[in-house]
Amino acid sequence: MDGDIAYTTRRKTLSVSWTLVTSSFAIIVLLCALCLFFFFHPRTCRQLSGSLAGSTEMLLDEIRDVNYGRLDNNIGTTDVRLPRDVVPESYNLRIVPYLWPDDRGASNSTFDGQVSIVVNVTAPVDNITLHAVDLNVTECLVTRHPKMVLNEHVMMADSFFIPIQETQLDLSKQFFIIKFKDMLEADYQYTIYIKYTGKFQDNMEGFYKSSYRVANETKNRWIAATQFQPTDARKAFPCFDEPALKARFTLAIARPQNMRSISNTGLKMAVNLPKLPSPLSSYEWDAFEETVPMSTYLVAFIISDFEYLSSETFRVWARSEVLSHTHYARDIGPRILKFYEEFFSIPYPLKKTDLVALPDFAAGAMENWGLVTFREIAMLYNEGVSPNSQKERVATVIAHELAHQWFGNLVTPDWWSDLWLNEGFATYIEYVGVDHVEPKWKMEEQFIVAGIQSVFLMDSLKSTHPISARVSRPEEINELFDCISYDKGASVIRMMDHFLTRHVFRKALTKYLNSKAYKNACQNDLWDALTEQAHKDRVMDKTLTVKDVMDTWILQPGFPVVNVTRNYEEDTLIVSQSRFLLHDSKNDQFNNFWWIPLTFTTSSKLDFSVTKPSYWFKPEELMLITETGISSKDWVLFNINETGFYRVNYDSRNWNMLIEYLNDPDSYSNIGTINRAQLIDDAMSLSRAGYLSYQTSLDLTKYLYHETEYVPWKSAYRSFTYLHQMLIKTAIYDKLKAYVLHLISPMYKITGFADNPRDDQLVIYKRFSLLSCACELGHSDCVRNAVAQFQNWRSNPQPEKNNPISPNLKAIIYCTAISYGSEEEWDFAWKMYKMTTVASEKDLLLDALGCSRETWILARFLSYALQSNSSIRTQEISKVFYALTNKVAGQEVAWNYVRDHWRELKSTFVTGFSTMSEIIKSATYHFNTKNDLIQLWQFYKDEEEYLGSAKRSVLQSIENAQANVNWMEKNFKTISNWLQNDTLYVSQYTNEVD
């Protein structure tokens, strides 16, 4: 029931007409029916009552008054940080897992642990506080000894036990507190011995269990694995679970004889460990070498029956069935590792590197030092079956995690507020690393659309957050694992790389990493190192520091739009800056300004190679540039290769000159490929936010008729996808379809429905995007070919073994055939999904299963995913929601389920790594009516206390929906008129295709 319900009163009269009687009776019947309906649908009743409490406009006013920045204002109100008077030096950890059936009968899925922690006490204390969650401590002892201490934890003669008064658990802070009768003296070392039991987590956090089956086997094969980032080491052993509290770790694990265990370091040759009790006669101890100093979240261990391939000290592990799919990871990994050693001028700190593909894994991958863990889809590539995009995915994820071995592991942020130092650097350096080993992939160009332009959307919302945000509680920390920390962090680091120059950037990084090796740092430490090198090499004025510049990008939310207004007669430029906001930009009260590196070129220069700033725009509103030497007949284009993290808007005359130049088939390619992509993305986004008329931005898109490069087209597809989402339920959608199909028609004629796997990567991506767009818009030849190839696969006697479809076209063909097909096509794809063992094939089929136009099939798909014995792993359920919301038919199915079953979903999923946040965003991205907005607001009010780490994402979704509603009101008529008046393109498309 929607919220737009209004009541009107009528003046009472003395006469009663027959019409009134029948109407009254009808109303009574309707109310009774509504009562019965709401009796069985209490949530809908609650929504209705909320709507009845006030008018639609009152609710909309309430939404408009939301302070989207309030999350940042409230963060950190509860202090859950550990005291700093007790500092760990080393851990000796032994774990005995009882994961496998019959180990302990009914008591399996538990583990026993013992940990001895050597700590330094720096000031007198009456307690020691550390972290523990879901652990049952059965014994706790503390001993004191002189600071020149232990050898393998053998107590010296003058060591003695410290009387413990009591131990306490503070569940809200996840503390385990050891209280003493007397004060502990400073300048001594103490050993904390804790014996405990724990239970395996079943949500892929902490020390968790997982299972898989080999073909034709009925019993599960079990795995025990860890995922500790950010705050889940405390679920496996009592510890000082904060990144600044680094220590050395010595680990011993008991495991069945038919299995293997691996950890951060290599195995010791001979260790004196206690004999295991008789029920564990089939178990053996594995003892590992001591680690280098590191944070608890990087500790890792896995017990499995996996096998491995190796290249000297580099090993890749996986299930035996898919081990052959790890060849590319095994080949690319050592090459990237060697490149990073050269790039950072620092040898890899450890003796070995293991990469492990896990069937169940919450994150995409995790950089545990020396033992990097992955979802299978992020590490496995099957030549001839997986698409080329999967090969790149494997390379970039491996490059990202290996970059962390230096940036994050060797030098670790003091606290999670600087998570972006880990993730932003690794995200940027992954492109540098892959570009070195796969130069034909043009990773610099790809970063523009995959990194910068993709994060602009979230960062243009008022509810975004600064890159460096204050956090305290675990759920707040989880919120930071988003595209602001990753992609925006990477984008501003790329900007810094360019304004400092690569030479200065690398030299400063090496000094920073060497000075902070095995320690912790904050962003100011990095800024100091970069400034010192920049001043030494004279690439930055000594009156300016890197901190001055970067604080404006790191400590405040959002990004600027640079407005360029030219005086064509006097050869001057007036440049202004303001925060770019997706909606309500005229009422911006943030008053934020940035240090902006300005680069530009003209139609006479056409120099797209120099990215060192021509000018620095100070954090002020206006800047006047005189004597530019720019001819009044030349256009000017700012932000060369989009190295700056900002958008650019021009006066109408300059826009028109750029449009005229682009629309000339002989001249458009003189503008660099990246800047053509920038012009499209900037223009369409400026129009979306109300800074520029759609008349101008749509006129600019006409040039795409002769564009042949991937990156500009990728930018265009993103903008057209938004128009598609907003207009698909309107009367002018056919005109939009006709226009876009006209633009792609020249490329379609050249490309056709064919794939050549030997083509360069960006040619393959361009073809994929082109055919995806064509089939999505109903291009008859595209749909006909897709359906025919899918049917050809279905008719094969052994379709699970023989798939004739080209890997690079599978996603298009699967989705199109299911979209235009019936239950039979869907059931076939579902069957193939359950049968395949290839990770990329499962991924493609899961996406395609959401392409059906039948809502009942999509509802069934969702029920399949959520049932307890589902063939779809829990980690993939968010992908099911995303697949549904990519198509109109599935959007309502997905949203209704999220709205009505939020608390169940929250208990099902891992709360970290943005799983819940992504579900919310994908389910509501298309909202563009007042009713949509009210439903979302009601959901927020109903579930606010249960949202957890998804709260910011819901507020962002509300703001985005509000922006979409405003967009429809402001732009629908303009776009409609433009499409209606541009009949030339519609008729051209009709003639070309028909």
TrEMBL record:
<keyword id="KW-0812">Transmembrane</keyword>
<keyword id="KW-0862">Zinc</keyword>
<feature type="binding site">
    <location>
        <position position="400"/>
    </location>
    <ligand>
        <name>Zn(2+)</name>
    </ligand>
</feature>
<protein>
    <recommendedName>
        <fullName>Aminopeptidase</fullName>
        <ecNumber>3.4.11.-</ecNumber>
    </recommendedName>
</protein>
<dbReference type="InterPro" id="IPR024571">
    <property type="entry name" value="ERAP1-like_C_dom"/>
</dbReference>
<dbReference type="InterPro" id="IPR014782">
    <property type="entry name" value="Peptidase_M1_dom"/>
</dbReference>
<dbReference type="InterPro" id="IPR034016">
    <property type="entry name" value="M1_APN-typ"/>
</dbReference>
<feature type="binding site">
    <location>
        <position position="423"/>
    </location>
    <ligand>
        <name>Zn(2+)</name>
    </ligand>
</feature>
<feature type="domain" description="Aminopeptidase N-like N-terminal">
    <location>
        <begin position="87"/>
        <end position="298"/>
    </location>
</feature>
<dbReference type="GO" id="GO:0005886">
    <property type="term" value="C:plasma membrane"/>
</dbReference>
<dbReference type="Pfam" id="PF11838">
    <property type="entry name" value="ERAP1_C"/>
</dbReference>
<feature type="transmembrane region" description="Helical">
    <location>
        <begin position="20"/>
        <end position="40"/>
    </location>
</feature>
<keyword id="KW-0449">Lipoprotein</keyword>
<dbReference type="GO" id="GO:0005615">
    <property type="term" value="C:extracellular space"/>
</dbReference>
<dbReference type="Pfam" id="PF17900">
    <property type="entry name" value="Peptidase_M1_N"/>
</dbReference>
<feature type="active site" description="Proton acceptor">
    <location>
        <position position="401"/>
    </location>
</feature>
<dbReference type="InterPro" id="IPR050344">
    <property type="entry name" value="Peptidase_M1_aminopeptidases"/>
</dbReference>
<keyword id="KW-0482">Metalloprotease</keyword>
<keyword id="KW-1133">Transmembrane helix</keyword>
<dbReference type="GO" id="GO:0070006">
    <property type="term" value="F:metalloaminopeptidase activity"/>
</dbReference>
<keyword id="KW-0732">Signal</keyword>
<keyword id="KW-0336">GPI-anchor</keyword>
<keyword id="KW-1015">Disulfide bond</keyword>
<keyword id="KW-0378">Hydrolase</keyword>
<feature type="domain" description="Peptidase M1 membrane alanine aminopeptidase">
    <location>
        <begin position="328"/>
        <end position="553"/>
    </location>
</feature>
<keyword id="KW-0031">Aminopeptidase</keyword>
<keyword id="KW-0472">Membrane</keyword>
<keyword id="KW-0479">Metal-binding</keyword>
<dbReference type="GO" id="GO:0098552">
    <property type="term" value="C:side of membrane"/>
</dbReference>
<keyword id="KW-1003">Cell membrane</keyword>
<dbReference type="InterPro" id="IPR001930">
    <property type="entry name" value="Peptidase_M1"/>
</dbReference>
<feature type="site" description="Transition state stabilizer">
    <location>
        <position position="486"/>
    </location>
</feature>
<dbReference type="GO" id="GO:0016285">
    <property type="term" value="F:alanyl aminopeptidase activity"/>
</dbReference>
<dbReference type="GO" id="GO:0005737">
    <property type="term" value="C:cytoplasm"/>
</dbReference>
<dbReference type="GO" id="GO:0008270">
    <property type="term" value="F:zinc ion binding"/>
</dbReference>
<feature type="domain" description="ERAP1-like C-terminal">
    <location>
        <begin position="635"/>
        <end position="962"/>
    </location>
</feature>
<keyword id="KW-0735">Signal-anchor</keyword>
<feature type="binding site">
    <location>
        <position position="404"/>
    </location>
    <ligand>
        <name>Zn(2+)</name>
    </ligand>
</feature>
<keyword id="KW-0325">Glycoprotein</keyword>
<dbReference type="GO" id="GO:0043171">
    <property type="term" value="P:peptide catabolic process"/>
</dbReference>
<keyword id="KW-0645">Protease</keyword>
<dbReference type="InterPro" id="IPR045357">
    <property type="entry name" value="Aminopeptidase_N-like_N"/>
</dbReference>
